[in-house]
Backbone:
């Protein structure tokens, strides 16, 4: 979601943006959180040991640092047979108080390896493709974009769900390069919606060879591990099924409405199939596009709005009757909310407020340029910002009811034509969307009967 053309950035500026996208990605920030959690566990041990020491004998010397025991590998570890018995019966903490620490440490390095390997494979694949396919390489040569910078920038942006591409036209200029689209599709999924499922599978595979105790602990104690992206087995399976179900549904809708449209003109059957698949995969959270979204059917735009609104780990997860009764009993215990919590709105309510505010700030353009500044286009832009997707319908001088001779078409987002007040509101929406996990339970005080 840009307000300037991407090709105005120099190679050095693209590198800086690449670093910012990498460190701001969800996988990287969650990995940093795991290492901070390890430090928190050590501090907790130290504080508990000091308190016990003072209570027993205030004149006694400070206790030995538990973290030193871990680093020196002198901690007493259960025998292999006992460890297997514990893992089979989900018993860990009573025999090995350091297993949680070791498991989180193992998980942190596993996520780091996942992050590095996926990026290296992606960058290498893009470089090989550009070396073999002259049509794609010619595009970069004509635009003055360095091949290596393009490969790294695009892979990092795709994996981090940023949706930025160094070209002004995003991926539209590569619509016929199906091989490049195939390379980017796994990056979209592995870095966002399928990350929990892939992570759990990776833990299971690695646990077959090494770190069996830590792997068993992580697989059987996802809640205790305290890592948002580590989901239970059944949840991970349903998540993957839901992701592919949404992609299939979007693929069917797009094919049925746009197969022979101008948006896909010039593409053969294979290129259309890959292009539509790429478009539907990106509809959830990445936002790279091979078509001009302003030219596709409104029904598809509405579908994309729903997809962008859904959190990344949305899944169909049936629950049993006993689980339902447990949830209801827990809900009754928490009926007494504070006054401030009762005032919190739902996510959808805040989005409606933001859309209304933007319609107010852009009311002049809504009257004078109703085709470009349609309410649907504004909704797409706001939900796209909320979902950190980046889809945009853009702005076209040809759609003006009163043609302006000074109007020049630019390759940037629709919000680039908004007023400063509207842009500020959209920035707030982006932050709100990135932090939405802290307010997913809002609006419970409002009852619709």
Residues:
């Amino acid at each position: 979601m840009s307000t300037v053309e991407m090709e105005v950035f120099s190679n050095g500026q693209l590198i800086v943006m690449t670093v910012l996208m990498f460190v701001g990605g969800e996988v990287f920030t969650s990995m940093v959180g795991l290492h901070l959690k390890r430090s928190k566990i050590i501090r907790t041990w130290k504080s508990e040991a000091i308190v016990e020491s003072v209570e027993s004998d205030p004149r006694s010397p400070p206790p030995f640092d538990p973290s030193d025991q871990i680093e020196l590998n002198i901690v007493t570890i259960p025998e292999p047979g006992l460890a297997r018995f514990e893992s089979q019966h989900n018993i860990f903490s009573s025999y090995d108080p350091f297993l949680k620490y070791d498991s989180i440490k193992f998980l942190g390095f596993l996520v780091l390896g996942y992050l590095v390997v996926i990026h290296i494979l992606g960058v290498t694949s893009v470089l090989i493709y550009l070396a073999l396919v002259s049509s794609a390489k010619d595009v970069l040569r004509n635009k003055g974009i360095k091949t290596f910078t393009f490969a790294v920038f695009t892979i990092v942006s795709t994996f981090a769900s940023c949706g930025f591409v160094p070209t002004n036209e995003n991926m539209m200029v590569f619509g016929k390069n199906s091989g490049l689209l195939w390379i980017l599709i796994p990056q979209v999924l592995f870095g966002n919606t399928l990350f929990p499922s892939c992570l759990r599978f990776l833990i299971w595979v690695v646990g077959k060879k090494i770190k069996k105790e830590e792997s068993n602990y992580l697989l059987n104690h996802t809640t205790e591990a305290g890592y948002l992206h580590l989901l239970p087995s059944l949840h991970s399976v349903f998540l993957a099924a839901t992701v592919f179900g949404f992609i299939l549904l979007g693929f069917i809708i797009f094919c049925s409405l746009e197969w022979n449209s101008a948006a896909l003109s010039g593409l053969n059957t294979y290129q259309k199939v890959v292009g539509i698949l790429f478009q539907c995969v990106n509809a959830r959270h990445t936002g790279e596009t091979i078509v001009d979204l302003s030219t596709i059917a409104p029904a598809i735009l509405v579908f994309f709005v729903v997809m962008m609104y859904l959190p990344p780990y949305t899944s169909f997860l049936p629950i049993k009757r006993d689980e339902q009764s447990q949830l209801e009993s827990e809900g009754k215990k928490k009926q007494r909310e504070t006054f401030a919590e009762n005032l919190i709105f739902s996510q959808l309510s805040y989005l409606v407020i933001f859309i209304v505010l933007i319609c107010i700030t852009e009311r002049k353009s809504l009257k004078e340029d109703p085709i470009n500044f349609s309410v649907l286009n504004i909704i797409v832009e706001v939900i796209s910002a909320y979902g950190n997707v980046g889809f945009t319908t853009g702005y076209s001088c040809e759609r003006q009811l009163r043609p302006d001779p000074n109007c020049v078409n630019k390759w940037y987002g629709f919000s680039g034509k908004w007023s400063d007040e509207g842009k500020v509101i959209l920035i707030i929406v982006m932050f709100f969307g990135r932090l939405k996990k802290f307010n997913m339970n809002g609006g419970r005080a409002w009852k619709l009967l």
Residues 66-95 have pLDDT under 50 and may be disordered.
